[in-house]
Amino acid sequence: MRNSSNMILLTFFGSTLSDRVHIGSINLRCFSCYGYGHGKSSCKEASRCGNCSALNSHSEDHCNVVAYCFHYHDAHQVRSRQCPRYRLEQDILQLANSQFISLGSARRKLLYRQKDGTGATSYASLAARSSAESASPKTTPSATSRSVGAGGPVHFVRRAS
């Protein structure tokens, strides 16, 4: 059962805490051109309809055309969370956050495995494969848990011992 609380539990591995904690990023998708990696406010591309992908022609609120995604040339809305491109971006974020690597490294790793034909097209299969590859941890971590209030960046202050 989930309770309504403004607290989250963070678990740290190791014996030292860093000055700051980065809690994963969200999928950065532009709601003007429907590209990835930037937001609407910094978009330099032509705007698209979120339903039919048409360039600069009309508002998606008044679109009566059949849904079309320019990313996958398929009959679904470009803004759909079921879009394979959206799911790929989610997998990249999950891989980057779970393996503590950059988004670029996660993207290359995931796309290489897809192209390589290893079948690692989902995060679950990629995580299972990469955990087998790195079976021996670099350090022997001990877990430390802290509860912190939610609602903004999380910063920790080091205390003198």
From TrEMBL:
<protein>
    <recommendedName>
        <fullName>CCHC-type domain-containing protein</fullName>
    </recommendedName>
</protein>
<feature type="compositionally biased region" description="Low complexity">
    <location>
        <begin position="128"/>
        <end position="147"/>
    </location>
</feature>
<feature type="region of interest" description="Disordered">
    <location>
        <begin position="128"/>
        <end position="161"/>
    </location>
</feature>
<feature type="signal peptide">
    <location>
        <begin position="1"/>
        <end position="18"/>
    </location>
</feature>
<keyword id="KW-0732">Signal</keyword>
